[in-house]
Amino acid sequence: MDVVASRFARPEPRRRVRDFMAGLLAPLPSKNCWTIAEHAGDDGPAGMQDLIGRARWDDAQVRADVRDFVAVKLGHPDGVLVIDETGDLKKGVHTVGVQRQYSGTAGKVENCQLAVHLSYASPAGHTLLDVALYLPKAWTDDPGRRVEAGVPDTVGFATKPQLARRLIDTALAGGLPCRWVAGDEAYGGDPHLAAALREHRLGYVLAVACSHRVPTGLGIQRADQIATGLPARAWQRISAGQGAKGHRYYDWAFITLPLATDQHDGHHWLLIRRNRTTGELAFYRCWSPQLVPLHHLVAVAGRRWSIEESFQATKTGLGLDQHQHRRWRAWHRWTTLVIAAHAFLAAAAAANTTSPHGLIPITVNELRRLFHALIIEPTRRVTDVIAWSIFRRQHQADAKISHYARQALIEP
């Protein structure tokens, strides 16, 4: 709260955002303005709904404060910016950005929202950092839906790589220390994003499809064709990082691409990963202003998985996808406060540099449990729980009366 309090001009929203963050950190069965208001001891959900939907504060400025906080607590010269999108399954057609589209979260085409997230990973830890909601053309070309969802007039259609580029530009403009960018095929297949990263002198390890074509001394070749022709001595067994069950070992090979040079100079490679059990291949386009050894590229490729851990932690523990808001501003505010809560946990976990013998270092999820049990829960009052039981039953009684009265007007 010391980091973001200045973004809230009055004491009331400052108190509410503190209580809102405490609700996000709490192990509530579901998280929305009703359950968070009950957890805070408010006399109803209106205050939390006002904080998310109507109060005056700038979510972009809060995310900028979070970025500065992360730079201090987790910053490292070799930091990695990780880009990826995640989907929130939704019903209906009125929630901003929703349509039937492919979601990697569901693994199929579903009715959902998609958002591009920027994560920061360093030797100290990793956390979500910034976000951009993806608006399909069905939304940007429909003035009625835009007005209903409160989409600003300045927001037009942008592809996911274009949104990722804006997030990266913002992070660099804010002075975040970083050297690399990692992402999956949705971003590795966009040449404009790669060119923008080279212009920033940011190295990258971006996944590409097996059909990706690269210039070689034998002409333009597909990535999978190159892999087929590699001799056994070209492969090296290297760990892509530590996992819960041990090192993530794969076979790796990389091919220098001197014919891929452009006005940005630097060094281009095609990096190939082979699963040691199934033989499945994955491909990456890599670039760095300086020559780097293979294990550096492998380490950056391994960092990309950190954003999946962040998605899991924020969805299962902080309610990232549990919002019930349809409008543009409310969606961004909810997501911003979840990002802030996750950054707090990541920084606090990183500060715990020593653990007793026989214990693993404290994790973000374990820290969230401890923080709630030791700090938040002891301040709650039994009378608040009883008051909310009365409030819910009164609200349900009022709703029942309204439904019966409406029915009486149309039924004989």
UniProtKB/TrEMBL annotation:
This is IS701 family transposase. It comes from Micromonospora tarensis. It holds the Pfam family DDE_5. Residues 7-214 form the Transposase IS701-like DDE domain. It comes from the Bacteria.
